[in-house]
Amino acid sequence: MAKNNNNKIEQFEITLFKAADKLRKNMDAAEYKHIVLGLIFLKYISDSFEELYAKIKDGKGDFSGANPEDPDEYRAENVFFVPQIARWSYLHSRAKLPSIGKDIDDAMEAIEKENPTLKGILPKVYARPNLDKAALGGLIDLIGNIALGNEAAKSKDLLGRVYEYFLGEFANAEGKKGGQFYTPKSIVRIMVEMIEPYKGRVFDPACGSGGMFIMSEKFVESHKGNIDDISIYGQESNQTTYRLCRMNLAIRGIDGSQVKWNTEGSFLNDLHKDLKADFVLANPPFNDSDWSGQLLQNDPRWQYGTPPASNANYAWLQHMIYHLSPKGVMACVLANTSLTSQSNNEGEIRKSLIENDLVDCIVALPKQLFYNTGISACIWFISRKRTGNGDRKRTGEILLIDGSRLGHMTDRTHRDFTDADISKITNTYHEWRKRDGKYFDEKGFCKTITYELLNKHGFILTPDRYIETIEKDDDGTSFEDNLKTMNQFLIEQTKIGNELNKEIIKNLERFYPDYSWNKIDFNNSDILEKMARDLFYQWFIDFNFPDTKYKPYKENGGKMVNTDSGEIPVGWRIGQLSEIAKIDWGNTSITKKSYVENGKYLGVSAAGCDGRMEHKEYDFGTVVISAIGEYCGRTYLPLEDFTAIKNTLVVKQLNEPFSYFAYLGLSFWKIERRGAAQPFISKGDTEKMQIVIPPKEIFDAFNKVINPIFQKIRNNNSQIQLFKKFREVNLLKSPK
């Protein structure tokens, strides 16, 4: 029954957000979220006020003779006092008036005046000229209907859930900017359920909208604990995000007085210098190069080594460790590069953290969990109580969990964990910690490693390096067995290749029946790629794609229209590259120094696919552009999963994960190059690059022809790589 009720509430949240989003019209999501979330907060405190107001007015028990308009009565009950002009019933009655925007701003001012803890927190943006007042009135009506029964407590709990749900949806709508204030709930759940903040001080030095605090409170409540047993401390450098956090906490009835804001941030102006927290939870910015590290070279927080000014990953770790109590535990989300980097003293800091017995567990996360980055991420679990304290002694060992294969796609761009995924990770960790736990190493998922093994691998902490090693090292096969395995693989790949050949010929014969496609050497990838480029040129540069009679469109009198960029077919349009693809910089913190001899994944630099890496950040099908120097403007299509390093731009097509339209187009579209002595390409110019966008049916028809060609290219590459691997592995095993 409870589950059904939860489902109803979730559906209500979804329906409500869709309705609110319709009222957004042309307003940017980053602005609109403050409009909506401010109103939800206003509704919450008004409902809380009205509930207590009714009790005081009734005058029973402790409220006998009390004045319902006396602010002190509300402060005594830890309820915000809401002046008459700010009460929801008053504002709702004025929702259709043209002055409603000013009315709400005045209400926010009045609430702050009566409640000093809210000073400077509430949004006062409703009277702006660009805010449609009719839409604002509709939004007030919508939020005014939030209730699932007559009990105010139910309504208040729902408002809290709605606020949290809307935060997530606005983060989704804002994309990269959204990730600056919101950490996906499933990641926060893993962190909280693993460190278990039952009782003590909880600290987040990069607290965003307060998700870590909300989840900690939920954890205590779900385990029948006392919410008053935890106190929260936080710091945030973005003022608008800080305001979202304070409202989020207030809706949940959590004391946010120790959540602080300043523009300098946690490194330059630590507002909790003397705090020693029992639990630290954080998702700080990944690979931040603008953290003023050059000003903090001799800071006392760097007990395990000075972090590089070019990357804040190890500054964040040490800042949090500095604030840990003698038996404190912490969970911190960082980019995967934190597990492998050996440059700029980072490898030495990681070694020192391990040798000082601080690292308890590493969890590798799947891609696409975050709204703001495609970079692979992990969670570091640090503990100062690894010598026992109720659990077994874990000195000298670390648990590695590879969660990169878990989760499911909630839409075409975002992944999420199920409850079962979360339980699998958290239960594994708790069983590993227990004195009589039922933990065991599981191939492909988890492994306990010793410092001795880490030392052999340069103290790299990437889980799949060690978990996969179980299978790789346990070889024991002969040359003959490996040859048999390779032959079987080749038979399978050849069969796949032959089927692709047939599909390519079938698709091409449909559009070009007069050509003998059987003469093509389908095992020559250079020929296949040249054929793909020629087809793109014919379809999208010359506009001689097959018409309805399979004749070249323009040559056979197809209708054309004039644009500022020249003639294009009727029904086509001129757009920008950003409309069909997401463009990001490659990982600016990684250079070729991070390449390793036998890395599992491809490394792509401005010069091309020229190295190997221990971790991946992008899947096959993503395009890389050289962004600076000698090769500026060149495009690469890595034929396997890879990491793009410094001085590259990464282009991921939005609508089709394996469409090659953008890759082929970048060979012909004009990429603006700047600079004289050192040419370079900017991200902004690339996003604004003008391109011809065809109707969906043309796009789909082209994909149907092109996709098998590139699958065949990849098939050819797989066979070549297999021969190379076989030769390397079996050179010493082969019969003399």
UniProtKB/TrEMBL annotation:
EC assignment: the record states 2.1.1.72
Q: Which InterPro entries match?
A: D12N6_MeTrfase_N, DNA_methylase_A-5, DNA_methylase_N6_adenine_CS, Restrct_endonuc_typeI_TRD, Restrct_endonuc_typeI_TRD_sf, SAM-dependent_MTases_sf, T1MK-like_N_sf, Type-I_RE_MTase_Subunit
State the top-level EC class: transferase
Quote the Pfam families the UniProt record gives. Answer: HsdM_N, Methylase_S, N6_Mtase
Query: GO biological process: what's one of them?
Result: methylation
What are this entry's molecular-function GO terms? DNA binding; N-methyltransferase activity; site-specific DNA-methyltransferase (adenine-specific) activity
Q: Where is the DNA methylase adenine-specific domain?
A: 155-474
| Residue span, N6 adenine-specific DNA methyltransferase N-terminal domain | 15-141
Q: Which residues form the Type I restriction modification DNA specificity domain?
A: 569-715
- Keywords assigned by UniProt, alphabetized: DNA-binding, Methyltransferase, Restriction system, S-adenosyl-L-methionine, Transferase
Q: Does the entry feature the keyword Ribosomal protein, yes or no?
A: no
Q: Which family does it belong to?
A: Belongs to the N(4)/N(6)-methyltransferase family. Belongs to the type-I restriction system S methylase family.
What is this protein's name? site-specific DNA-methyltransferase (adenine-specific)
Source organism of this protein record: Kuenenia stuttgartiensis
